[in-house]
């Protein structure tokens, strides 16, 4: 949307479900603890092929911009993850409970940006 010095946008980022392995190599295993959504039922081959399905998620982001007349400057106010969607719990993520390169951090993230053109 745009009108005069104002414009606004609403974007959505769709992440289809992902599947991760659910064999952590520890005892008791994630499968034994009942944490795998798709546990391996046949362990006769001495391998655990359990999987964990992370659900589909949609993140919504909004921002409003105002072009300051005569200053060559744009002021932006926005919110990432405006609907406060929590990332799905992952058992294979390093140093987090979710893959940080794929999902947004928990909580809404408001921001202000001032862009000055020289």
Describe the structure.
It contains no helices and seven strands. It is 0% helix and 41% strand. The mean pLDDT is 91. The chain starts with a strand and ends with a strand. The strands form two sheets. A five-stranded antiparallel sheet has the order 1-2-5-6-7, with no helix packed on it. The chain has a two-stranded antiparallel ribbon with strand order 3-4. The protein is mainly β. The chain is rod-shaped, with a radius of gyration of 21 Å.
Distance between the termini: 26 Å
Derived structural class? mainly beta
The number of strands is 7
Main β-sheet, in a few words? Answer: 5 strands, antiparallel
Q: What percent of the residues sit in helical stretches (DSSP H or I)?
A: under 10%
Continuous helix count: 0
Shape: rod-shaped
Write the element-wise H/E pattern from the N-terminal end onward.
Answer: EEEEEEE
Give the strand order of the largest sheet, numbering strands 1, 2, ... along the chain.
Answer: 1-2-5-6-7
- Please, what is the average pLDDT? 91
């Amino acid at each position: 949307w745009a009108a005069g010095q104002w414009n606004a946008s609403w974007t959505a980022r769709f992440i289809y479900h992902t599947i991760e392995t659910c064999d952590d190599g520890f005892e008791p295993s994630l499968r034994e603890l009942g944490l795998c959504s798709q546990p391996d039922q046949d362990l006769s081959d001495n391998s655990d092929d359990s999987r964990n399905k992370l659900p589909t998620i949609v993140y919504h982001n909004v921002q409003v911009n105002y072009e300051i007349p005569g200053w060559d400057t744009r002021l932006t106010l926005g919110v990432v993850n405006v609907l406060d969607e929590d990332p799905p719990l992952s058992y294979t993520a390093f140093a987090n409970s979710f893959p940080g390169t794929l999902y947004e951090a928990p909580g809404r993230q408001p921001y202000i940006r001032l862009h000055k053109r020289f």
